[in-house]
Recover the amino acids of this structure.
């Protein structure tokens, strides 16, 4: 398996391990065949984003022990679906992103400039 790249062209870094994130729950925003949502944007969630995504039917606040999901708090990093981050961007509530931990495939949904405007690691 080849090493995944981030949006800056470097090695994909770990997004978060507490809580453990990623489609594969390995801390990285990697994607693969079964990842229909493309969980590739490493974001530092905000209260505004958490409220927004809950209003869209994806409650990231409430713990779901059956999925080993602890629920997120503002400030937690999490691998978000690229389309949801873009939707939040369009609504004015996009959370900050960690470019080094955001998978290159996110660029199929948003531009590097849009991501850089919300980056916490530039």
């Amino acid at each position: 398996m080849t090493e995944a790249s981030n949006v800056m062209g470097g090695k994909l870094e770990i997004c978060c391990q507490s809580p453990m994130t990623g489609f594969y729950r390995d801390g990285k925003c990697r994607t693969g065949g079964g990842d229909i949502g493309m969980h590739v944007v490493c974001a530092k969630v905000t209260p505004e984003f958490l409220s927004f995504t809950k209003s869209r039917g994806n409650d990231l606040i409430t713990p779901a022990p059956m999925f080993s999901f602890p629920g997120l708090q503002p400030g937690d990093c999490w691998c978000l679906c690229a389309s949801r981050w873009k939707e939040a961007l369009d609504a004015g509530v996009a959370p900050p992103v960690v470019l080094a931990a955001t998978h290159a495939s996110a660029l199929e949904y948003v531009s590097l400039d849009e991501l850089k405007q919300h980056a916490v690691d530039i």
